[in-house]
Amino acid sequence: MRLFLCGDVMTGRGIDQIMPHPCEPTLYEPHVHSALGYVKLAESHSGEIPRAVPFDYIWGDALDEIDRREPDLRIVNLETSVTAGGQPEPKGINYRMHPANLGCIAAADIDCCVLANNHAADWGLGGLRDTVLALQQAGIATAGAGLDADAAATPAMLEAAPGKRLLVFAFACPSSGVPEHWAAGERRPGVNVLASLGENALTAVIHSIDRWRRPGDVVLVSVHWGANWGYEVPAAHIRFAHGLIDSARVDVVHGHSSHHPLAIEIHAGKPILYGCGDFINDYEGIGGHEAYRPELSLAYFIDLDNVSHSRLKMEMVPFHMQKFRLVRASEVEAAWLGQTVDRECRRFGRRVHLSDQNTLVLPV
Length: 364
Known about the structure:
Elements: E1 2-9, H1 14-17, H2 36-46, H3 61-69, E2 73-78, E3 81-82, E4 96-97, H4 103-106, E5 112-114, H5 124-137, E6 141-143, E7 145-146, H6 149-153, E8 156-161, E9 164-172, E10 190-191, H7 199-212, E11 218-224, H8 235-246, E12 252-256, E13 264-267, E14 270-273, E15 278-280, E16 296-304, E17 311-321, E18 326-328, H9 331-346, E19 353-354, E20 360-362
Parallel strand pairs: 1-2, 1-15, 2-5, 3-4, 5-6, 9-11, 11-12, 12-14
Antiparallel strand pairs: 1-16, 7-10, 8-9, 13-14, 16-17, 17-18, 17-20, 19-20
């Protein structure tokens, strides 16, 4: 089974404004009061950006790279509310994409959008409800949010091949900035919030997985956790990820929230991506964290053995966000990413090397 994974796909706000059906652009941020401000900021940095772009525009070179590798399933962390209405949450930053622009997700043949994150309900729980329903109507599976607590905890069940399923469970932690009142309730839409990473939380996750798993299923846990910036992986994340593999028999841990890639660990043959970084966003031209090279991103391709579900191969393709569009990273940019990810992976006894095609490879 080959999977395509990435981190945060943030198609709201500025990116929504360059699509065919933008939302009303008013924002309620302290310093920027129109989503068009983020378009102008990007244009001041990179040059004019077209408007009413085709839905595949934002994927740029990434679409060919994904298609060429023919993954069985494609999973992203969709970090925006998909609604034309809703009420902005008083949290300072509110991402919203018009439902009529959802073609930008369908354009990449995405199979599952993880919604357990700190932006899915930026326009209130009504906006989250709109998001879930819009994705359902588009035929795109969701995980980590729903119209009630049971739906939010239900995994996406994806068929990679006849009789071969991938179960995607998704959780959001308060450490990522998700408000605890976003937690789904018995009769209230919301996010699948994991309030802690202790033993009780792990036991609850194990019970949830065991409820749904059938023999032969591959299990992926997607978790939104931790700070936006910094390379240190908290000890609690490491313990929880190990517990997911050792006790819950999880096959892939898909972490996100950091705006840049973090370390990768292979534990008992199973990959842990502690932080996949942003993939698509409207941060172009925003300064302040240049040392992390936030304009660079990675697409993750993981091959799993069909029997043991252990990792057979992992390759990461580097990109650069330019004019709200992904372009292949230069040789110098790819080398910087390779050196950085290699440095972080060494902490977990792994090395990453740069291939002749300027991709990052984690050897078996």
